[in-house]
Specification:
This protein has a domain of 76 residues. The chain is built from 16 helices and 2 strands. The protein starts with a helix and ends in a 6-residue tail after the last helix. With 451 residues, it is mostly helical. A two-stranded antiparallel sheet has the order 1-2. 73% of the residues lie in helices and 1% in strands. Strand 1 and strand 2 form a beta hairpin.
């Protein structure tokens, strides 16, 4: 009997390690997915398969994990967002049915909405321990350094480097600096990934005081700056300041000194660039005579108009400011005279997917907006409680990193569909899922949270 139990435990651990290995490979693939698909443009069928593999694999892995738990009579673990998420998806489906959105369109958009949550629930069902956490951290920070290295090459010889990779050859110069994209197909993704890695390194430096983490945070911050993306840069600064603030063992004086130091360093090295970027954004989007000719402004303003006209729901999934509404050009754009705007027209719809919140507001209405914001708030509250829970510094550092990368993504979401866009959605929801799993393990090891 004992021998059988030991054999079963060894088998279970091997299976778990295999799943984690697959997830690491999948994460790396997602970072390179667009570049790979670009190089398969001559083979449309294979290219389409590659572009849809992220959604397919996440759904399949979650289904297999749930099936394994059911056949082995294991409890399917629940979370504090389950009911809210079910309500959000139910409203989205009902809205789409009421608005008679074709099943293929709203079904495909539904997959985009849930794909990040799939990874969240995958990690919820897995038992993440400290050694596995170290494996994830070391693996993806090593991947981050590789992207940083190629980012430097992209900075020095951008045209040749992108031509060599069959990548997006256009070089966007901002303030005389080529906006670096490294192995990504757009600088937005490079800025986000560098910020993501920098925030985790800084969280580990704050907790463990190891120089290697400080160097990592600095290198990745430089990479973020080289993307010359305002959202990523300001999100990084906000995340670093909040990392100092939420550390439960830092004294107030130390917190204040570190925040002042961060502000001074930021002002000395990138202050001029940041101010110029901020001024450029304000001038381009707010202080312009052609306010309603700017695609992003139109998407925001019209989303509220649509939500009011269809209160309390929206126009249905795949019908506004989403990839499906661009691929199958939505009649809503003609109805609200949006199709006349450059970047949102039927002939040139490239800027339709430049936002996130207008998509939620326009497609699912104010109810959908409130429910999605509630999910984000629950994430924040849960991870903040986890940070304050008795645990080793290594685990706490990861949870602090997860807390701050959500904040950074809120900055990104102003002008990017980060919560439904690969690879960002997978890394964000995956980090939150790992944090939940770690907190569950810690509550088992230290059952003093609720005396």
């Amino acid at each position: 009997m004992l021998e059988a139990q030991v054999t079963n435990e060894v088998t279970r651990r091997k299976n778990a390690n295999f799943i984690h290995l697959i997830l690491m490979i999948l994460g790396t693939f997602m970072l390179l997915q667009d570049l790979i698909s670009n190089n398969l443009s001559a083979i449309p069928f294979l290219r389409n398969i590659v572009k849809s593999m992220d959604e397919g694999f996440s759904l399949i892995i979650l289904a297999l994990i749930l099936f394994e738990r059911i056949i082995n009579r294991k409890k399917i673990l629940k979370t504090n967002i389950d009911l809210v998420l079910i309500a959000f998806l139910t409203i989205a489906i009902i809205t789409s049915l009421i608005k008679r959105v074709p099943f293929f369109i709203f079904g495909s958009q539904l997959v985009l909405y849930i794909k990040g949550f799939c990874l969240f629930y995958i990690f919820i069902q897995l038992n993440i321990h400290k050694n596995m956490l170290k494996s994830y951290l070391r693996f993806f920070l090593a991947v981050g350094l590789i992207f940083f290295f190629f980012g430097i090459i992209d900075l020095l010889i951008p045209t040749y480097f992108r031509t060599l990779l069959n990548n997006r050859e256009y070089v966007d110069y901002r303030f005389g600096i080529p906006s670096v994209q490294s192995l990504f197909t757009h600088p937005v993704f490079f800025g986000w990934f560098m910020s993501f890695c920098s925030l985790f390194c800084f969280a580990y430096f704050i907790n463990n005081k190891k120089t290697v983490y400080f160097i990592g945070a600095l290198l990745f911050a430089i990479g973020c700056i080289l993307s010359v993306r305002a959202k990523a840069i300001f999100g990084l600064v906000a995340g670093i300041i909040i990392t100092v603030q939420i550390h439960p063992q830092s004294k107030i004086r130390i917190k204040i000194l570190m925040i002042i130091s961060i502000i001074i360093i930021f002002a000395v090295f990138v202050g001029t660039l940041a101010v110029d970027l901020l001024q450029q954004k304000i001038t381009s989007y707010l202080l312009t005579e052609n306010f309603m000719e700017i695609s992003r402004n139109v998407l925001y303003i019209k989303s509220f108009e649509i939500a009011v006209d269809n209160f309390p729901i929206g126009v249905g999934m795949g019908r506004y400011a989403s990839w499906l509404s661009r691929a199958y050009y939505s009649p809503v754009y003609d109805e609200y005279n949006i199709s006349r705007v450059y970047g949102l027209s039927r002939e040139f719809p490239m800027f339709i997917v430049d936002t996130f919140w207008p998509m939620i507001i326009g497609e699912i209405g104010f109810i959908g907006l409130a429910l999605f914001i509630l999910i984000i708030i629950i994430f924040f509250i849960t991870i903040f409680k986890a940070i304050s829970f008795p645990q080793d510094p290594y685990t706490r550092a990861f949870q602090m990193g997860a807390f701050t990368v959500i904040i950074e993504c809120i900055f990104e979401s102003i002008a990017s569909p980060v919560f439904v866009n690969s690879p960002i959605a997978f890394f964000i929801f995956g980090s939150v899922g790992i944090s939940y799993s770690l907190h569950r393990t810690n509550k088992t090891l230290f059952p003093i949270d609720n005396p």
